Each structure stands twice: as structure tokens, then as C-alpha cells.
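User: Predict structure, ligand BES.
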Amino acid sequence: MTSAPRVVRLEDYAVPDWLVDSVHLDFDLHPRETVVSARMEMRRNPEAGGPEIVPLELDGEELEHLSLRIDGREAAPSEYVVDDRRLVLPRPPADRFVLETRVRIDPEGNTALSGLYRTGGNYCTQCEAEGFRRITWWPDRPDVLSRFTVRMEADAEENPVLLSNGNLVGSGPAGDGRHYAVWEDPFRKPSYLFALVAGDLGVREGTFTTMGGREVTLRIWVQKGKEARAGWALESLKAAMRWDEERFGREYDLDEYNIVAVPDFNMGAMENKSLNVFNDKYILADAETATDKDFENIEAIIGHEYFHNWTGNRITCRDWFQLCLKEGLTVFRDQEFTSDLRSRAVKRIEDVRNLRARQFPEDAGPLAHPVRPDRYAAIDNFYTATVYEKGAEVVRMLHTLLGEETFMRAMDIYFARYDGTAATVEDFIACMEEASGRDLSQFFRWYTQAGTPHLAISQDHDPERGTLRLTITQSIPDTPGQTNKKPHHIPLRIALLDGAGRELPLVTEDGRRLDDGLLEITGRRQSFVFTGVKERPVLSANRGFSAPIRLETGQGLEELLFLMARDRDPFNRWEAAQTVARRLVLDEPHERTQSLSEYAAALATVVRDLRETDPAFLAEMLRLPGVNVLASFLESDVNPQALHDTRNRVLARIAGTLEPLLRETFDMLAVTESWSPSHEQAGRRAARAAALSLLMHADGDAAARLARETWERATNMTERAMAISALSQSASPLREEVLDAFIGRFGDDHLMVDKWLAWHATWPHRDCVERVRALMESDWFSLKNPNRVRSLVGMFASANPVAFARADGAGFALVADTILELDRLNPQVAARLATTFRNWRTYEPVRRERAREALERIAASGRLSGDLGDIVTRTLGTA
Ligand code: BES
Ligand code: ZN
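Assistant: Predicted complex:
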């Protein structure tokens, strides 16, 4: 039995009847029984209207109710009703009154990691989206903004560090070996941004002087002894603060900024006002233990949470339907941050790869939903690739349509107008309209219509008249609950290339010149005619991936290879290479032979062309689409094992041809200067990793020896990871040997255990199922820690299609068993793991049946959490 799905609808939004102007929270911290007292200044919302007396309803979950006072006196039992989800005062005493509640909670017993819980021996909170109600009674919705004062008291020896939002305004001993601290946050905020941390932590400190001259103390709190590994996080924070000033004109607004790294965390990180809490895997880094990718992720996520201070905290969301208002926009901002600091082209490729691997499949399956959903049963399940990544793409399209300058003017209007409020997507778009003078009502459909638009372009060249006609048609597939969609407003950046790869001027029939190559598609079918086109040009379309669409240009191998070699838009160079590679795997075998050698030759040119000038980009060019991405281009009959085998045959042919060149490139790009996490060095290591991984497909033994040598000579984690990842794709006995050596050396570091588990979990072999089961039984694994679960079972399900979708259903069964067991401990993580079944209908019939059985077994098992029940019923289509 699933807990009754109470569906929440956007159209039902009503402003809150009651506001909490300010609150004093008092925490008497004890591991098994913490008492939370809240003193709330309640006020009728003048905007709400309604009858003279309106009940006050507060949310609560897993709270043991202790006492209730109204205006200083004990409330009579007849004055309120308490059940396991709500506290209701049917007849509040006046339009303003003081409500005092006391509850008892159990941090140690909190395995859901939502609310107040214990991690690494410390206390920590996670409140987004609806965790605050697991701490105290509250109108737990983001449009109730309050001033928070927090007093906490705890055992002084075990918890020397006491942190909350805002400024420390008092502290001292509290008797009995206990001490206290009082924190005051001058900014009104919704409950989801509340945070409290208490415990014994080490700190890495720094300062940042803002553009206005405010000196801010920055502190990164980590497990004691790991302070040295917080240096990169600290530098990243400074870089983020500087960047937000320079690019968005946004300054930090308090004297302190704290980040706490914890080992148990449901997500990556959380932007609580001036007290971010991070999964420690996105804080801790040094050459020995973190890869270049880890360094890049840390920089990006530190940036993301910092950028929320303006896009999320100062301006928050009116309701959870508006989640993309803060998340899509902030992902856009962190993408720009990384693009400005590193390589714009490489970042774009990484982001599109990620969009294709995670968002396109979501948008094409039973869990598809609009960037701004209009109904939900469990909000935890809407922190999705669609809200985040497609949400960021939508903001990027606005940026493309308006241009940097106008876009920034619109942002300034947004910040000025909505600071201190809880806003909507409509508010945001109104600022874009105001700054640009454009009508964005059609564009708004990107927020309300789910499904990835398909765009087809056909070309009609008339050499006599020197014209090229592009006819563009768009369609948007049906998605659950949505059919017959209206056309989107699509910014499509294009170029027409001459034989030397030069961009032709784009002049339309009426003599207008399109300097930026930007076409605006608004109809279902639309034509554009360009003049002065004597020779048939090569079309480069959707440059920089200007819109998140599936594009069909009908271009053949020759044109694609030309784009791969010559396009000056680096994204489209990569895109052309990916398209050819994809076709090599997906097309009929007899179409492959000729193409294969031409593709290999083109790739060889790319290697020579880029290895010295841009190895980071070369690395992307050398990474061929994986099985999951290949599968996402198929609508049905997916057989991951067959795709894997064909892909390997294609890789073997390519690698065989390129072997000497790859070997030479691998040697040539070795980094000889002292290690740094710089983008330059990282690029060289990435190109070497890509070369080595391709080499594994040529001559297994020679490459395995090279990988082993790489492992032995490695002086940093990136080089170790490159060796192990390469070996992980092989059947070489060296793989096991090196994995054993790795855990022997790094086994006492939980983040290294995660890496090791992930390598095991992604071994593309059917026997991986049994290996994962064995590891789950070992001491290396714990179902209580989300990082362990994601590294082993999450990676198995999402990044090992061969084993997960084993034809006998053993992989599906393993994941289903895990989901069921985990749901009793941590519903959020269990529900997320269940989304790995989202494309089950696209498998070939045998696998599809096995997947259905696994899903139905979950559905039938009784007592599912609301989060998991929601995913399973929608995935099965029984919602
Ligand atoms: N606000 C989220 C974190 C969050 C989401 C907490 C849902 C609880 C429930 C945070 O800003 C975020 O988006 N974090 C991402 C990483 C980010 C770089 C996209 C995450 O945790 O995955
Ligand atoms: Zn975020």
C-alpha cells in the first residue's frame, strides 16, 4: 500500500493565510532526543482575504508533540488538533499572536537524511524541499519568509562548533558540560534555507573583499585532519564570488560564509543562507585523491550554491512548481562560470553530453514532465534533469535570443524588482520582455510543454539563381498527459560553409543580412531563402547547440566528415563526429565498412590538428557515444548487449587504424611539469585518458601493459583513474590486480572506496551482477550512506547497461531488491534509484518483460514511501 498520493496542482495555488514574521528556534541537542522549541510571531496575511477567522495549519512529520502555548499561556486541548502530518488551530485567537511549540525529534534515528540528522558524529540539517517540517511545526512552503534567530545548546566537548545561518550574536557555557550559541539571520528566508550544524570539525579559513569593500570571512568546515584537502574549495569560492560580481554585478551580503562538508548527504550540495552544506565528495580534493574531473565538479558546485544566494535565496520561489526559476537559472549561471574560467567549447560539449544522457531519455519516457510541472505527488521527485538541465537550456535560449547585454539588463530588472520576494517564472519572463521589448508568450511554451522537439531541415539549392532554401519543420512528441502540442519558439544558430570552411554571408531575399546566423523558428513549417549562394554550401545547424532539440538534417557522411574537420563552431565539429560514430554503430553492417575507414582517417586528422593546440577538446572528439546514448536514439527493441558488442567492433576497427598515432599522442602529452589542477594540464591528461581508452580496443595486451605502466608511474589520482578506467573495459586479469592494489592503498578513505565501487559497478560484463551483489554484502558497502549506494548500485543501474539489462533479469532484480530495502531507510534515494527503470519500455521484448516484472514486484510489495510509490506508478503508467 502506497501512502495516499495527494496531488498538488499549480492552478490551486493560493497565498498563505498566515505569515510568520519572525521565529526564535531553540535546539537542545542530544543524539537520540533533541527538543526543539519555536516561538513564532504569527500574522494574518493581509493579501489572503477570506472570512474573519481562518484556521492556522502547520506541517509536521515525525515530530513528538510536547507542548503548545498561545500568547504565553498553555493552550487548552480544545484549541488545537494534532495528527501525524499537521497541527491545526481551528480558531486562532487574533490576527496577530505568538505561538510557542515544543517537540522532540530523534536525529540519530533519522536515516532519511531529511530534517535534523547525524553524520560523521555531527549534527546537520537538510530542509529543501520539505525537511523543515521534520524539525518543527511550520507552514513549510517557500512563500512564507521569516526572520530566524537560532539558539542551540549541545555537549561542549563533542560539539565545539555550533553553526547556523547569518551572524553569530552570542555564545557561552550552558552548565553541565554544555555550551550554546545564538545566530541571527538578518535576511528573511523560507524554511527550506534554514540550516544548523553542530559537532567537531576542522576548518580552512580565508577572506574575500567584495566590490563594495566588505571583508567576508570564508570558512570551509571538514572532518578533522582533512583541512588540507579544503584548499581548492576555498579558492573556488573566491573565484565564484569574484565572477558573480564581474559578470552579473552581484555582491555577497553578509560578513560570513560557511560551508560544511558531510559524508552522508542525499544530494550534491545545498545553498542554505550563508551556511551551505555539501556532500564531502564535492569539497575534498588534492592531487593524491581527486581527479581533474573532481576538481572541475567542486569548482562548479561551489559556484552553483554560491550563485543561489541571489538566484534562489534573495529571490526565492513562490511555490515548488517554480523550482526551475532558481535551479535552471542557477545551473545556467554555473555553466557560464565554468565556461568563462575554462573552455567554453568543452563545457558546452560536456553539458550537451549530459543532457542527452539524462534529460532526453527522461523527456522521452513515462517520467517526462514540463520544465515547470503543473502537478506533483512528491516534490522530491522533481529535482530532475528536466527542471535543472533543460531549465538551464531554456535560460540559455533567452540569452541567445536577447544577447548578453539585453539579457543582463533583464537580470538587473529581475534582481531589483523581486529582491526579498518569492517569485514565479512569469515574473522572470516579464523582466526579459521588458528589457528586450519582445513578446515571449510563445517562448513560454518551453516551460509548459514536455518532450524534446524534433526539427527537420531540408535544403533546396538553386545554382542558377544562387539561392538556398531551408525548409524547417518542427514537431513535439506526445508525453504523459500532453498531446497535440503547439510549436516552440526556437533559436537556431546556423552557418553556410564554403568548400574551405569559411562562413558565407547570410543574406535573405529581402536583402537583410543575418550577422549572428540566428534563425527564429516559430511555425510548424517555415522556409528561409538565402541569396548569393552560387556553390552548394555545407550547412552547419544548431551551432553551439543553440536549442535543446533533436535535429535531422539529412546530411550524409561526406558532409559530416567535412564539418568534423572544418566547422569553426567547435560544438558542431564534435556533433558531426558523434553523428558519424553513432551511425557506424546503429547502421546496417554492410554500410559500415567504407565509412569506418573514412571516419578513422578523419579522426586521425583531428588528432594531429588538436593534440598540441587543444587537448581538452581533442579528448571530447575521441570519446565515442556510449551504449546509453546510442540507445536513446532508438525508440524500441533496445538490446544493450548487442549495442555494446557492435560498438566494440567499431571501436576495434578505429583503434586498430589509429594505434600508432594514439600511442604517440599518449606519450607526447605526458605532463612533465609539477602537478596542478589547471585546465591546461587537465586537458592533456584528458586527451591521454581518451587515447588510452581507445587503445584498449586495439591490441588488448599491449594496451593493458601500457595501462599498467600508467598505473605504476601515476603520481596523481587522475592518472590512476585513467589506468583503471581503461582496464575496466577489458577482460584483462590486470584489471582485478590493479583494483585490489587500489583498495589496499586507499581503503581507509571513504571517497576512494566510492571510486573503487564505481569501477567495479561499471565493468561491462554480465558477471558484474554477481560481483555487485558480493560487494553489497561486504564491509565496503552500507545502504545507509547515499554515496556508497550511488557508487555501487546507482552506477551499476545507470552506467552499466550491459549488466543492468541482462537478459535473464538478474540486473533488474538486484536493483529492485536494493530499492525495496533502501526505501525503508531513505525514500528519496530509493526513489531516485528507481528512475533508472524509466526507459524500460524501449527494451527488446525479453528484457522489457524482465524489467516490468522487477517494477511490478516493487509496486506490489506494500508499504512503499510516497516518493518511491510516485516513481513506480508513473514509470509503469498506472499513475
Ligand atoms: N538546492 C539544491 C540541492 C537540493 C535539491 C537539496 C533537492 C535537496 C533537495 C542545490 O542547489 C543543487 O541543485 N545541487 C545539485 C548540484 C548542482 C551543481 C546542480 C545537487 O545536489 O545535485
Ligand atoms: Zn541548485
